[in-house]
Amino acid sequence: MTRQTRPFPHRHLLGATALEADDIGCILRRARHFDDDIAAGRAVPQTLAGKPVLGLFFEDSTRTRMSFEHAARLLGGAWYNLDIGRSAVKKGEGLMDTVHTMESMLAPAAMIIRHSEYAAPDYIAARVKCAVVNAGDSWREHPTQALLDAYTIEKHKGRVAGLRVAICGDIAHSRVAASNMAVLRALGAHINIIAPPVLMPEKLPADGITAYETMEEGLKDCDIVMMLRIQKERMQSGLIESDEAFFRQYGLTFDRLAHARPDALVMHPGPMNRGVEIAADIADDPKRSVILDQVRNGVYVRMAVLDLLAGGTKSGGTK
Ligand code: CP
Question: Is the CB of 298 under 6 A from ligand 1?
């Protein structure tokens, strides 16, 4: 029996830890509608028609920025991105002066914020009229990355609940790992985190997450192997001996992948450092790697988020 699910209750998307399983389900179902519409060549509902959407990327981005832009345009919205590196920020303009200037000029329906400061999107959300989406802040949260990862897992494996997911590498400095742990736990996955002691969080964020120091132990029987880049921009220098030494112990090779289930899929949020956390032949293996699928699914998931927060759509649809 199909039933209408409860309305999406959030005004902003600031972090994955604030999402309940129902909220995540709502976003993923909406993403599936867009994915199906586009795959079938059907017209996408223009729920952002005439609405400005503003990108404020105070840190560099390829995937997140371009997929939000594409998502906004597919929904009929008008995308604006402030080029921070060539803006008055370089003359010393403060964060909220920049935000309020853009808000006054464009009256955006949504702002998409990436920033190196902890909880900067939350700070902005409390001071503007429109919806705010966190596109990655500090090492804290990158919620749309975790949502697109969950969508990708569900699309390939048919479910997330009950799967064993290994998250490997620089866990301590990774906002992708933090948001994934929240989303995957909410959906009922088992999580193994694998890292050298210097890249392991001091405290695990939740029960039900098991920490391993070796890839061989941590990958055992995993359904999904999620690799992470070493976040050099957020770590003290000298924490790892060298890229080569890291690859020798923690790089994903076919030999190491053999410890996971034979049908285990390999994921990476990008950008990848080939030969550091992942061997090039695995990254490019169409049977095991779903890395480019993740990128494509990011468009549908970000369409869903924009639609629910700024497009007037109230729920993910029936289930
Ligand atoms: N995964 C991710 O956030 O990539 P970008 O930095 O390219 O947006």
Answer: no
The region, left, alpha or beta by phi > 0 then psi within -120 to 50, assigned to residue 159 is beta
Is ligand 1 within 6 A of the CB of residue 271? yes
285 and 161 in one domain? yes
> What CATH number is attached to the domain comprising 275?
3.40.50.1370
143 lines ligand 1 (CB under 6 A): no
Which residue's C-alpha comes closest to atom 3 of ligand 1? 64
Owning domain of residue 149: 143-291
What is the domain count for the chain?
2
How confident is the prediction for the chain on average, in pLDDT?
Answer: 95
Closest by CA position to 219, among listed 176, 177, 168: 168
The answer for residues whose C-beta is within 8 angstroms of residue 200's C-beta and 6 or more apart is: 171, 172, 193, 211, 213
pLDDT at 1 over 50: no
What are 293's two structure tokens? 């699928």
pLDDT of residue 2: 46
Report whether residue 136 contacts ligand 1, using a CB cutoff of 6 Å.
yes
> In terms of pLDDT, which residue wins out, 319 or 80?
80
318 vs 193 pLDDT, higher one: 193
CA of 31 to the centre of ligand 1 (A): 19
- The CA distance from 197 to 211, in Å, is 10
If asked whether residues 265 and 226 sit together in one domain, one would say: yes
pLDDT tier, 206 (very low <50, low <70, confident <90, very high otherwise):
confident
Looking from the CA of residue 114, the nearest atom of ligand 1 is 8
Residues 137, 177: one domain? Answer: no
Cα–Cα–Cα angle for 168, 150, 69, nearest 5°?
105
Q: Are residues 98 and 166 in the same domain?
A: no
Atom of ligand 1 nearest to the CA of 136: 3
Predicted structure pTM score = 0.96
pLDDT attached to residue 12: 98
Q: What does the pLDDT read at residue 3? A: 53
Is 239's pLDDT higher than 90?
no
* Ligand 1 center from residue 272 Cα (angstroms): 10
Ligand 1: centre distance to CA 62 (Å): 6
